[in-house]
Design goal:
Length: 70
């Protein structure tokens, strides 16, 4: 019985992993419209921070450390 149980568990894990790996491809293919509609104005949050969030981080201020020039 242990062998049958191990085979069932292994099959379940393979199906679960396959579904997890296939989900991103299904998610991308199921989208019919783009994430940002270029025909509409950007929402206020997007206009405040810009259309791309990870373009750079300048929110911590200048570095107070003086680095010697070599």
């Amino acid at each position: 019985m242990s062998r049958v149980r191990n085979a069932a568990l292994a099959t379940g894990l393979v199906i679960f992993a396959g579904g997890g790996l296939a989900f991103p491809f299904y998610f991308v293919k199921s989208k019919n419209k783009p994430v940002i509609d270029s025909t509409k104005a950007l929402p206020p949050q997007a206009t405040f921070r810009g259309p791309y969030i990870n373009t750079g981080s300048r929110d911590i201020g200048p570095d107070p450390t003086n680095y010697p020039k070599s």
